[in-house]
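Figure 6 in text form: structure in, sequence out.
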């Protein structure tokens, strides 16, 4: 990986990108672009800039990633979140999770899976399901889609499958969750 690309842990949404761009602008660190989990710098950071950037990122819950393995785990998480939330291209929607991750990261899925499980203490599939359920919670709270529309949107095989998985993970039925609302939601980096 180029020394002009920094990996950042916990960047999972568009507001995260905007927050990091704001930090870079306030600290006068020139950059080309900021993506989920990545900062593309114009020039290499000097040691003083790196310390300042590290401190500013920590203040808002982000962390620079130094090791290749940690960086790969973060990329797995970011891609899995995007896939779970259906924020991928039409071609990628058709791929199952293992093929999608292998294609994007250029590693065999068995390697990615064993590394992820070893570091995170759970499977990629478990993480993926947690993310899909969090998205289902979000859509339930908005109240603009029916449960069957949510199941279709998140690629569950049926409404019953979504309901079963939802209850298994949250202890609540989707309809009861809709009543209790936002108090039961988790931040994406806490899932």
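Output sequence:
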């Amino acid at each position: 990986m180029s020394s002009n690309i920094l990996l950042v842990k916990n960047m999972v949404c568009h507001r995260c990108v905007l927050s990091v761009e704001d930090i870079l602008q306030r600290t006068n660190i020139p950059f080309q672009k900021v993506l989920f989990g990545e900062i593309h710098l114009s020039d290499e950071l000097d040691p003083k800039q790196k310390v300042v950037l590290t401190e500013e990122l920590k203040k808002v819950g982000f962390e620079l990633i130094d090791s290749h393995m940690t960086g790969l785990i973060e990329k797995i998480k970011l891609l899995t979140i995007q896939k779970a939330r259906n924020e991928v291209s039409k071609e990628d929607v058709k791929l199952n999770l293992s093929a999608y991750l292998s294609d994007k990261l250029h590693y065999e899925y068995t390697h990615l899976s064993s590394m992820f499980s070893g570091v995170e203490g759970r499977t990629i599939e478990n993480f993926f399901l947690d993310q899909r359920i969090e998205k289902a919670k979000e859509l339930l709270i908005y109240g603009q889609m029916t449960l069957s529309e949510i199941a279709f949107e998140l690629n569950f095989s049926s409404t019953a499958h979504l309901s079963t998985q939802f209850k298994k993970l949250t202890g609540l039925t989707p309809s009861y969750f809709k009543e209790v609302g936002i108090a039961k939601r988790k931040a994406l980096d806490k899932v």
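Caption detail: The chain has a mean pLDDT of 89.
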